[in-house]
Amino acid sequence: MTAPFRTLTPDAQYHDDALVEREAAAGQLNLVTLRERGAEAIPDAEWEQAEAILLWHECPITPALVPKLKKCRIIVRCGAGFDHVELKATGAAGIPVCNVPDYGTSEVADHAIALMLTLRRNIVQYNDRIRTDPVAGFDWSGPATTIRRIRGQKLGIVGLGRIGTATALRAKAFGLEVMAYDPGLAWGQEIALGVTRMADLHDMLGKADIVSLHAPLTEETRHIIDAAALAAMKPEAVLVNTARGALIDLGALHAALKENRIAAAGLDVLPKEPPEADHPLMRDFHDQPDWIRGRLVVTPHAAWYSIESQTDARRKAVETAIAFLRDGELRNCVNGAYLKR
Question: Residues in domain D-isomer specific 2-hydroxyacid dehydrogenase NAD-binding (predicted)?
């Protein structure tokens, strides 16, 4: 019988002793589970001995790290995004990188809708007022800067992949009119979904009452929501991001909110996680001056999470690793264009 493949998880996002992974591996993997927030915290020997890596989102695989992966045969991202993995360097080293794209589609779409509803129904401000003063705060008529009727509003989706599509379908159930900007979308897909295809991003931003981001992070999409994009949005518009933090220029967003050039924002992701406490937006979010109250909601990169989705990501990552290590089968390879065989 083949000896178990030594498999490193450098940044595990669970607190048990890899119970899901052990069950899925059925003795075929020798699991090493760490919970670090950076590759530099992990001894070189662990990288050098790993035959497979199950990677979450807190340990970037950089060009400088790749030479240490002397025995590595596959890297599996326990999730969909892979912008923190250097695809060219891993490909040149002959290491395939795979992801798990189908574990939390429902959860992220649900979270995006939840952020929209939270802001459009003024949930945070109402809650905070009543918590501060249960009697005086029990008043619906106070400042409610973000409240609008949901039905009939226009939602602009940036990126109509799996999660963007799931968000669009949910939004339609609420009576939202859905537009989508996605240059890579197959022609006719918008017809099948009953949404309006938009050829120009800024044109869509100018029409949308709510904008929801569902694009991957690439060099083309980094800061796709910049000062110019925010200037194109309506003053009463809401911006939601459950995709990747760097899709938004955080400084430009801070200025747009402070100057009342957009109404509100709901963020599940940030350019740097955990965030920099001294960033102007995060500092004001912490201090809560009057202008920001109820207009910014932040959650800790949690849109993907449920017990079910976490279990799916863990199990499918193990299955993907084993399929290649044992049978040579590549599932969802994302660096195939650079992969040296």
Answer: 113-303
